[in-house]
Amino acid sequence: MISASIVLYHNKFEEISSLINSILSSVDVNISNIFLIDNSSNDSLKTLKFIDKKVIYIFNNKNLGYGKGHNIGLRIALKEKNKYHIVINPDVKLGDAVIQKIAGFMNENPDVGQVMPKVLYPNGQVQYLCKLIPSPFDLFIRIFIPKKIFKKRRNLFQLKFTNYDKIMEVPYLSGCFMFLRTKVLDDIGLFDERFFMYPEDIDLTRRINEKYKTIFYPKTFIYHAHAKESFKKIKLLYIHLLNLIIYFNKWGWIFDSKRRKINKRILKQLN
Question: Over 70: is that where the pLDDT of 232 sits?
């Protein structure tokens, strides 16, 4: 059985209903439930639950944050012993047979704990969302420094030299679409709820990668309307930076021996 969760925050009804229907229409896939975790200030999206009996609407009446919201669905998935669970952003559109293909790949590779497909912008361009474990400097230049500066460092961090055209192990996969093996989460834990938003995907992927493989699988794809809102709005930028402080306080700022060891291993595999 495969379940999925989508954390909502004042999203457009049409956007979410389209995503729900695309998940439900996946052939040869046993979808148990789609959990809609609504962090909005009102329950105007509750009518989404009438799309199908598999849609479970949960209204929180406050913004719990991204990881804490998804943990609600993940705990139910673990309790029901679903084999896989998909964490999906509301602004995602599924490519052809993406769920079937990734489930098939994971069935054949029991040492894989997490998979991300190729992620495209709506215009078809590749989003470079395969990354090494970041240092504070990597995230600082990504947020504050123009792209043409430190270009070589950026390209290495985003593993652009791989051309994103082969299956590869990656220690930091984007949270926009996380195809997760639930027994792995039962082992290493769920999202760290200290993170309100942004670095929770870095943290979860690297924790999985310490014991299992975290894989980029480009044989299928999704579309993601990646808005980078924290780069545009001061309040979200503040939240982003605050949560990065929490992240580096947890894992280490300059001295993070695990980061160096993981990145060295990954680069050796890919070169």
Answer: no
